[in-house]
Write a structure and sequence with these properties.
Shape: elongated
Number of strands: 10
Structural class: alpha+beta
Protein name: rRNA small subunit methyltransferase F RNA-binding PUA-like domain-containing protein
Largest sheet: 5 strands, antiparallel
Organism: Haloarcula onubensis
Oligomer: single chain
Order of helices and strands: EHEEEEHEHEEEE
Radius of gyration: 16 Å
Pfam families: DUF7122, Methyltranf_PUA
Strand order of the largest sheet: 1-2-3-4-5
Distance between the termini: 45 Å
Length: 165
């Protein structure tokens, strides 16, 4: 049973979990691979932890489980909702490995996105959460998570992280 006051390591497979609604390491790796094309080997040195219901964290290393601390690694993924949602931090850290469901924005589009504005854009891929990239210092870099539905890219940049550039 997951304790909302402690970080508990995700079970590796379905066979190892007690709660059928709880994510597994295998499911997390499959999600990143299937949705974004991020190879499972990207997370080889990382462990996944849950605190609360569906709030996943990623940590590079192997602390004991459960862990009674306020924070561990970085927030990574929200899983106990209809569609799993990667965090801004996860996308910025691991999004460079993505090959699928990545939308690249022009300078003006990226500025609007980072400011938290929704915008009508053409996208011929799957609807849902996308990794958003923009050219920074001559390289394509992940800047955040967008939700694409009905021809509109909705910025998922948290209010406290939005910037007018």
């Amino acid at each position: 049973m997951n304790d909302s006051t402690k970080f508990t390591r995700l079970p590796t497979t379905d066979a190892e979990r007690d709660d059928p609604d709880r994510a597994t390491r295998e499911a997390v790796l499959d999600f990143w691979d299937d949705r974004f094309g991020v190879p499972p080997a990207t997370f080889e040195e990382h462990t996944f932890w849950e605190r609360g219901k569906g709030k996943l964290w990623v940590y590079r290393g192997e602390p004991p489980s459960p862990v009674d601390v306020e924070a561990l690694g970085m927030t990574f993924l929200r899983t106990r909702q209809e569609h799993w949602k990667p965090t801004l931090e996860a996308v910025q850290r691991f999004g460079a490995h993505a090959t699928d469901c990545v939308i690249h924005l022009s300078e003006g589009e990226a500025e609007a996105f980072v400011a938290g504005h929704d915008q009508e854009l053409d996208w011929d891929g799957d609807w849902g959460y996308l990794l958003v990239t923009h050219d920074l210092a001559g390289r394509r870099e992940p800047v955040g998570v967008g939700l694409y539905v009905y021809g509109e890219l909705r910025s998922q940049v948290p209010k406290g992280r939005r910037r007018e550039l």
